[in-house]
Design brief:
The chain is mainly alpha-helical. It is built from 10 helices and 3 strands, in the order βββαααααααααα. Helices cover 57% and strands 7% of the residues.
Length: 208
């Protein structure tokens, strides 16, 4: 296979586009271009083309993994699945996750802590934090430590109730506010405690 054209300048994603004699195009990162000593007019054997495709796939998965991790906190399992959904080869996606882990760029324990901190900052209860950990596909062995120091959210719950109810409200509005708090991951007990402190009627909201 002959290289008909190798772009000498990268695109916005940092890739160099190569056009082959059969009309196919391949996006390569600089390291792969240099590793294979590529240039316009170079002839590649079948074995060299196979090696080039594999190297290109591995590098693509790694660079995409870097971009994903740079934009958001992700668990290893979440990152691997995101890579596959973006079109990366499953084997190369797994290798990219291993590569990131070897560089200490992935840490499920730290991701668990970050997820819980964000939930606390948003005023969510422990149940919603557990849901977030599940959604981020953080392994359960990291949940207990991350949730161990979950703060008392009574003040947050009271703040939420005040913002929703104001000074003039009826029982239906209180019920809607309570339901919203339960959806935010707070327990009946925590909500009832806040209602008591605000001196709101709690008879309809018995603890489970």
């Amino acid at each position: 296979m002959r290289i008909d054209l190798l772009k000498t300048t990268p695109d916005r994603a940092g890739r160099y586009w190569v056009t082959f004699s059969d009309g196919t195009r391949m996006a390569l990162y600089r390291q792969t271009v240099e590793d294979f000593c590529l240039y316009s007019g170079k002839e590649l054997s079948d074995d060299e083309m196979t090696a080039l495709r594999e190297a290109a796939g591995n590098m693509s998965a790694r660079m995409r993994a870097v971009r994903i991790v740079s934009a958001a906190s992700v668990s290893k399992r979440d990152l691997e699945q995101r890579l596959v959904r973006k079109g990366e080869d499953p084997t190369q996606a797994k290798e990219a996750v291993r590569w990131m882990s070897d560089l200490d760029l992935l840490d499920d324990a730290k991701v668990a802590e970050q997820v819980v901190r964000r939930c606390v900052a948003k005023g969510y209860g422990p149940a919603r934090a557990k849901q977030a950990l599940y959604e981020k596909q953080v392994p359960k062995e990291y949940w207990e430590d991350a949730l161990a120091d979950y703060p008392d959210m009574t003040d947050k719950i009271e703040e939420f109730l005040r913002s929703k109810l104001g000074n003039d409200y009826d029982d239906r509005e209180v019920k809607r506010a309570v339901d919203a708090l339960l959806r935010r991951g707070h327990s009946y007990g925590s909500v009832r405690k806040a209602l008591n402190q605000l001196r709101l009627d709690t008879e309809e909201f018995l603890e489970e």
